[in-house]
Automatic annotation (TrEMBL), chain A:
Gene Ontology molecular function: ATP binding; ATP hydrolysis activity
Originating organism: Terribacillus saccharophilus
Name under which the protein is recorded: Peptide/nickel transport system ATP-binding protein
ABC transporter domain residues: 3-246
Topological type in the membrane: Peripheral membrane protein
CDD domains linked: ABC_NikE_OppD_transporters
InterPro entries named among the record's database cross-references: AAA+_ATPase (IPR003593), ABC_Ni/Peptide_Import (IPR050388), ABC_transporter-like_ATP-bd (IPR003439), ABC_transporter-like_CS (IPR017871), P-loop_NTPase (IPR027417)
Keyword terms, alphabetized: ATP-binding, Cell inner membrane, Cell membrane, Membrane, Nucleotide-binding, Translocase, Transport
Protein location: Cell membrane
TrEMBL record, chain B:
Stated family: Belongs to the ABC transporter superfamily.
Listed Pfam families: ABC_tran
Gene Ontology molecular-function annotations: ATP binding; ATP hydrolysis activity
Alphabetical keyword list: ATP-binding, Nucleotide-binding, Transport
Protein name: Peptide/nickel transport system ATP-binding protein
Residue ranges the record marks as coiled coil: none
Residues in ABC transporter domain copies: 4-250
Gene Ontology biological process: transmembrane transport
Organism: Terribacillus saccharophilus
Gene3D superfamilies: P-loop containing nucleotide triphosphate hydrolases (3.40.50.300)
Length: 262, 253
């Protein structure tokens, strides 16, 4: 077990957005959190890293290495974020500063986390770039000079730079077309096997998780309504809403045949 | 009957590079033709050429026996009436300062003099708006709201209602479900399919989502790097003669 969430509640004034959610993420697993817009899945993910806005309050506990990280002071959390828990977001343009090159982004990231030697930083950046299948010459470019798929690859390289234990990908492929999304997902899977980091993958599209996830949780109106292994949720969903989600996503006919065979 | 005939269409933004390279397609009356490809393959550029908002650099778009490039004012106006569109982002497609009923009435008021509606009837503005909202399964009170008061799925239904309001021959759907979440996506696809049965127009459905295209369309065309690689009947999707790239796309879903 790498991360354990117990009775996590996120509220905005009187309104409860995430309602007593408990889940555990094991080492090296791909945990998918599926739900519609407004179900609270993003709030849940942001609560983990203390990224919630000032009007939102989180209670309950998120245990990482035996301590409740919700209560960590800011400085400690800053250290943890990136090193132990890192994020990839949906909006790849919003994740980068437009007037810094990719190299500058990565350099800053490493410096903040205490990699002092310039040469070491340079090597790490080069390696990270190669690991996500990007040409090393792209580091000198500005974010807007890269395509969405390329930027999302850079986000992954950044997020995995310090070998975190858990990577939180919040709709990381939603803004991409399905071909680029597929490439990003297989890249994530490959890197996950290599580095052994767990992935909390948040999505509204069932089809993105069907192939990659080990465990799935379905979220609706702030609550986890059903969770379990991928096999169980896809083949024997209990909740009506889970069934709706599965049926709503269009699939090709062969895929259905294949799924029923396995 | 052919609604639109596209032959050897070329469009270039940078010299020496064709965004749309020699694409030929025909769209039959009442059919749904799907156009699939990844970002940057030229599918939206093709749509923009068809809408007449981009000048084409070669080939022709023929509607009603008239090449679009040679159409006179009256013919182009007729074309604009009969070829409607639904875009990916419904928020950008609706005027934020107009109530929903204002947006819905706009095309009818533009074209009312030359328009003969078969399915809808215009007796009063209010009644017409209600018919349209009913057709896209929205509550009729929404006519008095502003776009920002609606959800993404509701807004997309409004843009669909606006597109069908003047009973066009062809609707170009450019990623109409891409900005919606899964449940709304499925519902919008079903709505599009039942509207087609009701009104009989053709669709050109542009999307990167092969499975969504498969659900709605009878024929599927595949584009890559500006070129049309493959076009086939839906039933032949698993045929061995499919282009290698089509097979790659299929393997993703």
């Amino acid at each position: 077990m790498i991360l354990s969430i117990n009775d996590l509640t996120v509220s905005h004034g009187e309104k409860t957005i995430v309602d007593q959610v408990s889940l555990t993420i094991d080492k090296g697993e791909w945990f998918a959190l599926v739900g519609q817009s407004g179900s609270g899945k993003t709030m849940l993910s942001q609560a983990i890293g203390q990224l919630l806005g000032p009007n939102l309050r989180a209670s309950g506990s998120v245990s990482y290495q035996g301590s409740n990280i919700l209560e960590h002071p800011k400085t400690e959390m800053n250290q943890l974020r990136g090193k132990a828990i890192s994020y990839i977001f949906q909006d790849y343009h919003g994740s980068f500063t437009p007037f810094l090159t990719i190299q500058q982004h990565m350099d800053e990231y490493l410096q903040t986390h205490g990699v002092k030697e310039k040469k070491k930083r340079k090597n790490m950046i080069k390696e990270a770039f190669e690991s996500v299948g990007l040409d090393a010459s792209l580091v000198r470019r500005y974010p807007f000079q890269l395509s969405g798929g390329q930027l999302q690859r850079v986000s992954i390289a950044l997020a995995l730079l310090l070998e975190p234990d858990i990577l939180i990908a919040d709709e990381a492929t939603t803004a991409l077309d399905s071909v680029s999304a597929h490439r990003i997902l297989s890249l994530l899977q490959e890197l996950q096997l290599k580095t052994g980091c767990a992935i909390l993958f948040i999505t509204h599209d069932w089809r993105h998780v069907a192939r990659y996830a080990n465990k799935i949780a379905v979220m609706k109106d702030g609550k986890i309504i059903e969770s379990g292994s991928k096999q169980k949720l896809i083949h024997q969903p209990e909740h009506v809403y889970t069934k709706q989600l599965i049926q709503a996503a269009p699939t090709l006919p062969m895929r259905i045949k294949e799924a029923s065979k396995s | 009957m052919t609604v639109m005939e596209i032959s050897n269409l070329k469009k270039s933004y940078t010299p020496g590079k064709l965004a749309v390279n020699d694409v030929s397609l025909s769209i039959q009356q009442g059919e749904s033709l799907g156009l699939v490809g990844e970002s940057g393959c030229g599918k939206s550029t093709l749509a923009r050429c068809l809408l007449g908002v981009e000048k084409i650099d070669g080939g022709s778009i023929i509607y009603n026996n008239t090449p679009l490039a040679n159409a006179n004012r009256k013919e182009f106006r007729d074309y604009r009436r009969n070829v409607q569109t639904v875009f990916q982002n419904p928020t950008a497609a609706l005027n934020p300062k107009l109530k929903i009923k204002g947006s819905l009435l706009d095309p009818y008021l533009q074209f009312q003099r030359e328009l003969e509606l078969e399915h809808f009837t215009f007796s009063s503005k209010q009644g017409f708006v209600e018919q349209l909202l009913e057709a896209v399964e929205l509550p009729k009170e929404l006519g008095d709201r502003y776009p920002h008061e609606l959800s993404g799925g509701q807004k997309q239904r409004v843009t669909i209602a606006r597109a069908i309001s003047i009973e066009p021959k062809l609707i170009i759907l450019d990623e109409p479900t891409a900005s919606l979440d899964v449940l709304s996506q499925g519902a919008v696809l079903e709505l599009l399919s039942s509207l087609q049965k009701m009104l009989g127009m053709s669709y050109l459905f542009i999307s990167h989502d092969l499975a969504a295209v498969y659900q709605l369309c009878q024929r599927i065309a595949v584009m890559k790097d500006g070129e049309l690689l493959d076009i086939f009947q839906k039933e032949d999707i698993y045929d061995n003669s499919r282009h290698a790239y089509t097979k790659e796309l299929i393997s993703i879903f």
